């Protein structure tokens, strides 16, 4: 693996990313909503100004008296001056086109000041709006007759009043405030989230480091409420436990192998030493006893080899279609001599559909189970291999009515080198590995094996294999 030149803590990375995303989101929302709201606001202002122009027009028309065909110029002046204050420069003409009232003629100075003020403010507030004062003419009517013309001049396309600008400023302030608040909140929550993620990951890394330094007792104590992290924690703890178990199995195995080899080697050693020194005559029986011990060592080595192969984890199963009843009968025939010698009754009963298994391995399972049944059933006893099916499994049961296994030994009989009533099993030639091999092979086929037994009432080993598709 190539390590990057520079690394950052998960917390820093997560916090920075969250802050960046929050900043981007807030900026985007701020800009977009500002643009849209401003556009709507400009439309609204333009509409308001059109409405205001329509109001002025109506008010001006109301100053015409159709009966006397005369205008109330005093009121026109009031309307005009009032409109001027709001930025509207009016000119009113009568039907003949003669000027009735003109804001510029009336108060040129105020008009210039208004034009200058509005233009100046708009240049400051809305520099993007390239506007100017423009006049628009409206016909004045009374009872369907044109009675004159009104010219309204104002800063177009629109202009803002002080209140409008205050409103826009308040809006911007709200956007900026909300943005900053959201950003602060996002950063704070981001830091909490980053902490929630980085602490368990850091602990997992720590435990992994301690494990690699040989401390397999290291564990992560607290779980996380984030599912994936909790799974990581459980997986690391599980890994630590299985490394511990593997480690103690490894130590145990070495101790067991040493112990298993020591007894026959000592026996052979002392026997041969005595014969070499002339203490014992090398009789047939003594040599036969040494030979037996050598055979025992050979068997142990063979058993260990098969166990190592089966437990290596990369056990390759060469699966074929197998009729279990045939295999059981064949295996039983291999024990014919021992069965006859011990006066045992042995049979295969029941049947089941064909299964997809590794024939040789399955034969080994049957051989180990039958060999135990033969070994631990006194003469005159009965051994049965019973085949059957349940809804989702194929069952192969090897049962005998032999010496049985004590309850305290039963949970351990599948462990390597475990022998119930050690001296008795050793006498029967067992090394305590047969059932461990059975368990590993059955597990490799996706099945399981369990034992039931009672002392002097026999034993029953049930292998459960997954049922193949019909
Ligand atoms: P071994 O080679 O010693 O038989 P196994 O792993 O096959 O080793 O069996 C473990 C122990 O379980 C045996 O030592 C024996 O005490 C007990 N055992 C296994 N099968 C039987 C059985 N059918 N009847 C009584 N005891 C049994």
Main sheet?
5 strands, mixed
The overall number of domains is: 3
Q: So what's the CATH class of the largest domain? A: Alpha Beta
Helix content: 55-70%
- What is the architecture of the largest domain at the second tier of CATH? 2-Layer Sandwich
Description:
The chain has helices spanning 10-61, 73-85, 103-106, 108-125, 162-212, 227-276, 284-311, 324-334, 336-342, 359-375, 422-427, 434-444, and strands at residues 64-65, 70-71, 89-94, 99-102, 132-142, 145-156, 319-322, 345-350, 355-358, 382-389, 393-400, 448-454, 458-466. By secondary structure, the protein is α+β, with helices and mostly antiparallel strands. The chain has three domains: 10-176, Beta-Lactamase, CATH 3.30.450; 216-314, Orthogonal Bundle (Helix Hairpins); 319-466, Heat Shock Protein 90 (2-Layer Sandwich). α6 runs antiparallel to α7 (284-311) and α7 packs parallel to α12 (434-444). It is rod-shaped. Residues 368, 372-373, 376, 400, 402-405, 413, 418-420, 425, 430-436, 459 line the site of adenosine-5'-diphosphate.
Chain-wise SSE layout:
Layout: H1 10-61, E1 64-65, E2 70-71, H2 73-85, E3 89-94, E4 99-102, H3 103-106, H4 108-125, E5 132-142, E6 145-156, H5 162-212, H6 227-276, H7 284-311, E7 319-322, H8 324-334, H9 336-342, E8 345-350, E9 355-358, H10 359-375, E10 382-389, E11 393-400, H11 422-427, H12 434-444, E12 448-454, E13 458-466
Parallel strand pairs: 8-10
Antiparallel strand pairs: 1-2, 3-4, 3-6, 5-6, 7-9, 10-11, 11-13, 12-13
Residues 368, 372-373, 376, 400, 402-405, 413, 418-420, 425, 430-436, 459 line the site of adenosine-5'-diphosphate.
């Amino acid at each position: 693996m190539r390590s990057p030149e520079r690394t950052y803590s998960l917390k820093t990375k997560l916090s920075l990313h969250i802050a960046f995303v929050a900043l981007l989101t807030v900026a985007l929302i701020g800009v977009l909503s500002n643009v849209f709201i401003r556009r709507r606001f400009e439309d609204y202002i333009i509409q308001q100004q059109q409405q205001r122009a329509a109001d002025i027009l109506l008010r001006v028309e109301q100053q015409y008296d159709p009966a006397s065909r005369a205008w109330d110029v005093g009121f026109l002046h009031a309307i005009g001056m009032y409109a001027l204050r709001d930025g509207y420069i009016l000119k009113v003409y009568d039907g003949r086109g003669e000027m009735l009232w003109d804001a510029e003629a009336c108060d040129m100075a105020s008009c210039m000041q208004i034009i200058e003020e509005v233009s100046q403010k708009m240049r400051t507030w809305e520099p993007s709006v390239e506007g100017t004062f423009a006049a628009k003419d409206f016909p004045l009517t009374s009872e369907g007759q044109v009675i004159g013309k009104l010219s309204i001049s104002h800063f177009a396309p629109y202009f803002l009043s002080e209140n409008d600008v205050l409103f826009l400023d308040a809006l911007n302030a709200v956007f900026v405030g909300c943005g900053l608040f959201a950003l602060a909140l996002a950063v704070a929550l981001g830091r909490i989230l980053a902490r929630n993620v980085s602490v368990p990951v850091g602990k997992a890394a720590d435990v992994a480091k301690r494990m690699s330094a040989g401390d397999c007792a290291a564990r992560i104590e607290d779980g996380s409420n984030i599912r994936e992290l909790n799974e990581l924690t459980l997986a690391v703890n599980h890994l630590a436990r299985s490394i511990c178990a593997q480690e103690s199995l490894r130590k145990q195995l070495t101790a067991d192998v040493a112990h298993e080899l020591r007894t026959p080697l000592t026996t052979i050693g002392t026997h041969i030493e005595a014969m070499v020194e002339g203490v014992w005559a090398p009789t047939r029986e003594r040599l036969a006893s040494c030979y037996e011990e050598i055979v025992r060592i050979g068997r142990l080595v063979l058993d260990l080899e098969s166990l190592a192969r089966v437990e290596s984890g990369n056990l390759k199963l060469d699966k074929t279609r197998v009729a279990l009843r045939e295999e059981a009968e064949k295996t039983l025939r291999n024990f014919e001599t021992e069965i006859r010698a011990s006066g045992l009754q042995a049979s295969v009963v029941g049947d089941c559909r064909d299964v997809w298994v590794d024939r040789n391995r399955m034969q080994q399972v049957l051989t180990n189970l039958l060999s135990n049944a033969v070994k631990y059933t006194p003469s005159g006893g009965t051994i049965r291999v019973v085949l059957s099916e349940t809804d989702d499994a194929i069952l192969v049961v090897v049962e005998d009515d032999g010496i049985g296994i004590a309850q305290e030994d039963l949970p351990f009989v599948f462990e390597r080198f475990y022998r119930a009533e050690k001296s008795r099993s050793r006498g029967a030639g067992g090394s305590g590995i047969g059932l461990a091999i059975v368990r590993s092979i059955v597990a490799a086929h996706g099945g399981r094996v369990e034992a039931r037994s009672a002392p002097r009432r026999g034993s029953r080993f049930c292998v459960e294999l997954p049922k193949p598709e019909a």
